[in-house]
TrEMBL record, chains A, B:
It is a multi-pass membrane protein. Residues 38-141 form the Magnesium transporter MgtE intracellular domain. It is found in: Cell membrane; Membrane. The chain crosses the membrane at residues 292-312, 318-344, 365-387, 393-418, 430-453. Acts as a magnesium transporter. Signal peptide: none annotated. CDD domains: CBS_pair_Mg_transporter. The keyword GTP-binding does not apply. This is Magnesium transporter MgtE. The keyword Magnesium applies.
Length: 454, 454
């Protein structure tokens, strides 16, 4: 084995900069040569790291044989930006090589006219599979499944299975077993490849198969699917309809996609970004989406300003309050955000239930009290050093304790309430929390000051 | 197949509340009966969703046969909380059933005395494997690998391989192929199980094996490992030393753990939380860690207050400025946070390079200008309606444009600089960004007001 076959060393990774330089030099021959050595996963990575103009140039240089696979590996938004520019015939040709679940994913977002051209061009068999996939909602097992299942009957011997397998040049990716069905196509269990290898050839499939290997109902939510793959160490699993009829299978790589999308959603949702957000999207389309989020937050900001406005007279008399008030709001925001993130993750992992949410709320509020008292002392000390005013020091200390306790309570209550209302806490939790910590922070600090210091 | 064997339906999922209720009722017989029906992955999930006292009670009720597997599936922090209470003999017994990479993971954090007892109790073979794993740094392929590899020589026929496999009762999880080695143990390639099944039995291993199937160098970073598994659709891959000597293998489920830890780190790091943070940790240990984060943010808050303090005279004269100033800071914080999140994710996915970071910076700043102008107009209008003061309206509009552009520039520059300094941007990026948007926001708004309105 030579050094070049061993991965991963930095040098064997596709260099995005090298591609950009070749594009700038318009050295298309060298570029085509380079691209020919990458496989679709790497090509997709490179395309996603290109600004819009360079991305289109590069896409035209990608060898046709790699086009379909590369297309399916791109994020929706990047893929759509390339598809809209493709001639329909080219797109139709690319779809011929796509697998059914990728096709279903893509076709839904296309204009009716192009969609029809694609569907007309498909073989009857593929079109039928596509329609089955599309009959299930997005985000379910039925939409994820692929039809590339190798099935065997339960009443034959392993000898027969082996002869049947030898008719195949190769087995599909992530084939760790064959799906066992009865005469009418009902799922019976899974015959693991390693059992075929380790068992006597005269055994019957039904004796060797794992009838405990559960199938996934096509209407199952994809997050449940991911959970079960992890728990049961599946590499692939059968998908069945409500009558236990075998429809297809879900593979490990589908699950990785689900997990990745879920984590991207949790991370990006907090900032009002879509998880498919294309880093190199054109300026206008990026600005449009982001600006909506700024608008939502502006409402929060004006609400906070309105609260401050109530105490304009107080601020007019003691200007130090204006200087210090952001400290109270900011400490509440930070502490609340910690509780919020933990709670949202706990909900996503199904760790929080009716039985333990009370314990959790008490714990978080207690942490709020402890942190609040500690930092109130520190802040009061620093404020006293700065302004030499005992009244202001005491008021800010009290306000910090109040706001940190409110932040903890809000950090746990907001996601619980949002989930009950079927609103995604990962998306709107942070905005609501900031509203609470700003309002409570300004209100308690300026309110106490008005009451005690004027 | 009966309904109960089909997953996942809500009813077959372990009910955490049911467990909590049985614990409260001290109905330990029923509880033991229930726990017996869960497998280790489910038991780990349940334990992680328990408050500390209940967690310990429950742990004592878990059947011994499941103990070791359950222990390895827990997050570090939860596991450590259980281990410290276990009698050494019990812990030693549990480790006997653990696999080497889990054991390596755990043993490092144990006190020397317990560690010795465990190591003395291991078989020579396992201890040797453990030492090999521990000789590699945490976060490398060598630490992740397990020794459960089935190897074959390259100069035998498939016939021989099949006979050899039939000596095994079962193959280890995620065995999609056998590792091919030469006489001296050097890695030659992978013999996929499906090739064994589909090829003629008289073929030699070296004719059928995939010599292109790359091995992973033991010193490779785990994130690279995950990347390659995804790109090449691996289910398992060989790990070799620098001489190409086969040391072990990495499996798909290791990769899922890496991906999960990475996404948890990105999500939790922003709030100064550790990715292994135990939702149900005791109050004191949680408060300790979180309070450090509040302290760091307090520095930022005082810095912002100090900036405001410079303009105390201005605030004293125009109280409306105090009312409005949080709006400028908050809009900058939100916009900057969007750019920061996108940039950190782009860096994590290796999408941002020298060649495209310039394009990206221009794009983000341009978005900042567009959003800035749009929202400056809206805010100026609202402020005019509120205070009927053209001067203040113009000043806040200008400050918002300045702060949104600064936020975009900071959102992209901060993570790039931090990465070059080898500081994790997911951890400290948000704090630094807030400092910038607060300081620039207050400074530009109050500075412009001082200059033009006094």
């Amino acid at each position: 084995m030579t050094e070049s076959e061993r991965i991963p060393t930095e040098s064997t990774k596709p260099s995005i900069d090298e591609v950009i330089i070749l594009l700038q030099q318009a050295d298309f021959d060298q570029l085509k040569f380079l691209l020919n050595h990458f496989h679709p996963g790497q090509l997709a990575d490179i395309l996603e790291a290109m600004p819009p103009k360079e991305r289109k140039q590069l896409w035209d240089l990608i060898p046709e044989s790699q086009g379909a696979d590369t297309l399916t590996l791109l994020h929706d938004e990047v893929r759509n930006s390339l598809i809209v520019e493709m001639p329909t015939e080219e797109l139709v040709a690319a779809t011929e090589q796509m697998n059914v679940s990728d096709l279903a994913d893509m076709i839904e977002e296309l204009p009716e006219r192009i969609r029809q051209s694609i569907e007309e061009n498909l073989s009857d068999e593929i079109r039928e599979h596509l329609e089955t996939n599309l009959s299930f909602e997005e985000g379910t097992a039925g939409r994820l499944m692929s039809p590339d299942v190798i099935t065997v009957r339960n009443d034959v011997t392993l000898e027969v299975v082996l002869r049947y397998l030898q008719l195949h040049e190769d087995l599909p990716d992530y084939t760790d077993g064959l799906m066992v069905i009865d005469r009418s196509g009902l799922y019976q269990g899974k015959l693991l490849l390693n059992k075929v290898l380790t068992h006597d050839k005269t055994s019957l499939v039904k004796e060797v198969m794992n009838s405990q290997h559960p199938a996934i109902l096509a209407t199952t939510d994809e997050h449940e699917v991911a959970h079960f793959f992890e728990q049961f160490h599946f590499v692939s699993a059968a998908v069945v309809d409500e009558n236990n009829y075998l429809l297809g299978r879900i593979k490990m790589d589908d699950v990785i996609c689900i997990l990745r999308a879920k984590s991207d959603h949790a991370l990006m949702g907090r900032d009002g970004l879509h998880e498919e957000e294309d880093l190199f999207a054109p300026v206008i389309s990026s600005a449009k989406r982001r600006t909506v989020w700024l608008g939502i937050n502006l409402v929060t900001a004006f609400l906070a300003a309105w609260v401050i406005g109530i105490f304009a007279d107080t601020l007019d008399k003691i200007v130090a309050l204006a200087v210090l008030m952001p400290i109270v709001a900011s400490m509440g925001g930070i502490a609340g955000s910690q509780t919020l993130t933990l709670t949202i993750r706990g909900l996503a992992l199904d760790q929080i239930t009716n039985g333990n949410s009370g314990w959790l709320a008490r714990k978080e509020v207690l942490i709020g009290i402890i942190s609040g008292l500690l930092w109130a002392l520190v802040v009061a000390g620093m404020v006293w050093l700065w302004f030499q005013d005992t009244g202001i020091s005491l008021v800010i200390a009290a306000a910090i304790v109040i706001n940190l306790v409110a932040a903890a309570a809000a950090g746990i209550a907001i996601p619980l309430i949002l989930q009950r209302l079927n609103i995604d806490p990962a998306l709107s939790g942070a905005v609501i929390l900031t509203t609470v910590t700003d309002v409570v922070g300004f209100m308690s600090f300026l309110g106490l000051a008005t009451y005690y210091l004027l």
